[in-house]
Predict the structure of Integration host factor subunit beta.
Amino acid sequence: MIRSELIQKLSEENPHLYQRDVERIVNAIFEEIIEAMARGDRVELRGFGAFSVKKRDARTGRNPRTGESVDVDEKHVPFFKAGKLLRDRLNGEA
């Protein structure tokens, strides 16, 4: 599912809301998650999962084409850990 499909589905399930308002709501939620992660905060949505930022240390990598060693800088990457309810639903347990 992509963002536009999510907005469409929420609009269909909430006919009392305009689609442009649903779009603003979805965008606001995503922006808040992004901003919190940019600050280094953890975002937890009970039953769904938790978004956090993990630090990857600098390392020496290898260019797959040439085999040449390449220095890879330290970086921060987004990380998602699924919640118990989500895992259970995916495995047909709930």
